[in-house]
Request: fold
Amino acid sequence: MKKLILPIVCGLFCASTSAQLVKQQTSDTQEQSKLDWYNCSFDKDGVYGAEVNKAYDLLKAHKKKAKANPIVAIIGTGMDVEHEDVKHAIWVNKKEKNNGKDDDKNGLVDDINGWNFIGGEDGQVMESLLREGEREFYRLKDQYGGYITDGAKFFKIINGKRQEVPAPANMKEYEYYRNKVLPQSRLASAYGGIQLGYVLNEYFDKFDRDLKQRFPGKELTVEDFQTCYDPKAKRDTLSEVTFMIAAYAFSLYKTDKWEKVYQMMGSGNEKRSQDSYNDAVKKYGFDNRKEIVGDDPNDITDTHYGNNVLLTSDAATGIMKAGVIAAKRDNGLGGNGIADHAKIMTLRVHPGVGETYLKDMALAIRYAVDHGACIINLPEQNSLYPSTQREWVEDALKYAEKKGVLVIVPVWDLSEDLDKEEYFPHRKMCKEGELTNLMVVASSDEKGNPVMNTNYGANSVDLYAPGTNLYSTYMGDTYQKGSGETMSTATVAGVAALLKTYFPKLTGSQIRDILIKSVTSRKGVEVEKGIRVDGNPSQDLFLFDDLCISGGIVNAYQAVKEAMKVSK
Reply:
């Protein structure tokens, strides 16, 4: 998931590909550099594309013939499998027939072109998912949601009063709830507000008593209230929080009179907080998985669920990625796909709203590997991976590595340094050693610059790839320009599929190696980049090689040259 920053916390998590409709037009060289410019090169077209056209010229010059139809699994949203410019490239499960039976005995009925892991037997599909933070809040709420701490002691609200209690028995899990789940869950934040409401009532009463003892008979003002703070007193974080809220209330209610602030804020806080929590539950607390899908999302052995409905309301993102990867070349329709011999397998785990269940992610990776995919394109990274479910994904990624499958994941556009902030999946997440088949990709533009707000990391991001204003297939035999983190991974997946088409013996680990070595180098080039300073957006200048491992942009031409050497 992406990190959230609320008022105590806020944010979003959805597939963020955006699109702009453009008229269908055939592509001459000039048009192509403005539309499917990811095929182009700087020396010929003036844009920092992936040099795909040059790669094909090189293959032709060496009389290389296509040897395979590599399967690219797009794990994410739905797909329009009937689109005129992509239908030739849709993967078909040859062991399955569209007859309402499980012909290939894999427990999934009529998985002809892939599978929808968030669908039901009756054909319904999920249109939104809970965020991982909300799911973790529900799991841990009863154990840790009721604790209050002043920094030294622990308390709970019992019969409406704050009472000291022993520290949580499992402090490690409590700290996980407090430091990881709470900042990423709107429900946890609102639930914590209920406990805070009781604390506010308690301390407002205390402030009022102290003030009236200190200034008997006086109309109390904000100046009097300020005497409630004693910097020399033993620190009490609960008192400090209440003092700050009360101080803010003077300006909120545009008064300098304590009595008005006390009347407005001195009681009923727990009721207001309870109402806010109830509203949050109604808005953010349900996704109907139990009713629609019916599986147990916490049981990795419960695998026979979902349906084969792929044309869903979120299919636009999938079809745009498919077009970049495998749209028919030189047919006068739309843009040219990078590898039109590739076959696209669709595995839906994300409707565009909420965050993917990691069980679905792990099973989708395994499905892809078991059904012949050699390249897997994942949804965006996530900053919250519960330990048990993380193991499911780790095992699936190691399985893909063992089978020679390349896995590609995009970063988020949050301007965060991934060498300092941990997002999953990443290559070093497995205890057994670094994954050699996992690529982390960020987005670049026509001028060869990183997208301003993309995440970065000299040791965490592999390379950049064209991901803005890409002309591609869209719903209903239409075409659009699209931008987004996931579009950059479509470009990399296309280049990887091109290599597998002509050099099918290359493993996923070898392809990652080749793509990193063969980038269009931007080393030494100074670029402007968005960053975060104390959680706030800012900008700074970087050398491109400080943003990613390779110091450059994916280059199909150079990758083919390198593959020729490796494959001799």
User: Anything to note?
Assistant: The chain has a mean pLDDT of 93. The chain has two domains: 49-129+292-524+554-567, 132-285.
